[in-house]
């Protein structure tokens, strides 16, 4: 879905710290970013020839310690700006199951975002309660509103099933997430500015996948992840209901340009193809003159 926003040239930042599945880890990173609390050497560790951080995804891991810390702290700065400037923040929760370091200094430090293939005996596995998830979500809203009071939240639950936890355990996990989100959205949520969650919403990606796209032809080969047909269908449900109709024309123009940029002719030297490229360039210039922030590769 993030790729869809990027394709249509929305001003977005997608998973700056990598994919994070649980609400506690998301809250921890948002708190770091809002408070500009930089990562230090005691926040990282060396394992399997790479430096890792339990708070971020393994795709950020690095063989160079200094470069790793620098990249993490650059993300703190950029994420702080994005959180302060964003009009909407979409938070997708994947699971209520978390892993906690056995030797953590405190409960808040214990929950990890990624185990980085560290031996399982160093962790305990637990299911976050509905109340724990609620508290994380409320904290996230409060933290962001402290620097960006007009920001709106869209919460959703990933339709990807975590069957490694077990079929029953996955259902329980998703139920905790859904119950917690609706509990937070349906109650008044006060901050120093006396804001409420009335402008925040729930997008039913999980329900669409489970109920409307229940056939396995909408899944990839692993029978767990939505395939492209399903992603496209969920995206249509999203933009038709949550994106202003005034933007549909611009989205169609951008889609036309994107398809043109991907076009590969049999013979690029023909007069007709050169005319096609010229028309495409004119379309791009027209869009960029009206919307300077839009850039095409």
UniProtKB/TrEMBL annotation:
Domain annotation GSCFA: ranges: 1-238
Q: Which InterPro entries match?
A: GSCFA
Q: Which Pfam families does the record associate with it?
A: GSCFA (PF08885)
Highest taxon, organism lineage: Bacteria
Q: Which SUPFAM superfamilies match?
A: SGNH hydrolase
Name of the molecule in the record = GSCFA family protein
Organism encoding this protein: Flavobacterium cheniae
């Amino acid at each position: 879905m993030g790729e869809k926003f990027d394709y249509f040239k929305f001003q977005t930042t997608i998973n700056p710290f990598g994919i994070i599945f649980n609400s506690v880890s998301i809250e921890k990173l948002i708190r770091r970013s809002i408070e500009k609390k930089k990562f230090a050497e005691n926040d990282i560790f060396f394992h399997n020839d790479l430096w890792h951080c339990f708070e971020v995804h393994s795709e950020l891991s690095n063989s160079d310690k200094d470069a790793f810390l620098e990249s993490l702290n650059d993300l703190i700065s950029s994420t702080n700006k994005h959180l302060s400037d964003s009009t909407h923040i979409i938070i997708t929760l994947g699971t209520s199951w978390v892993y906690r370091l056995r030797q953590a200094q405190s409960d808040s430090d214990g929950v990890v975002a990624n185990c980085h293939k560290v031996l399982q005996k160093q962790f305990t596995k637990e299911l976050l309660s509905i109340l724990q998830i609620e508290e994380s979500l409320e904290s996230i809203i409060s933290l962001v509103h402290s620097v960006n009071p007009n920001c709106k939240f869209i919460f959703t639950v990933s339709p990807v099933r975590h069957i490694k936890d077990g079929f029953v355990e996955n259902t329980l996990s998703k139920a905790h997430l859904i119950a917690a989100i609706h509990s937070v959205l349906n109650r008044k949520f006060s901050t120093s500015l006396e804001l409420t969650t009335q402008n925040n919403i729930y997008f039913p990606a999980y329900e669409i996948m489970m109920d409307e796209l229940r056939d396995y032809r909408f899944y990839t080969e692993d029978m767990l992840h939505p395939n492209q047909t399903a992603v496209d269908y969920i995206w249509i449900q999203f933009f038709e209901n949550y994106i202003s109709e005034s933007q549909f024309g611009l989205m169609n123009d951008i889609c036309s340009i994107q398809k043109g940029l991907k076009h590969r002719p049999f013979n690029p030297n023909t007069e007709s193809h050169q005319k096609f490229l010229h028309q495409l360039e004119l379309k791009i210039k027209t869009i960029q003159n009206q919307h300077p922030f839009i850039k095409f590769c």
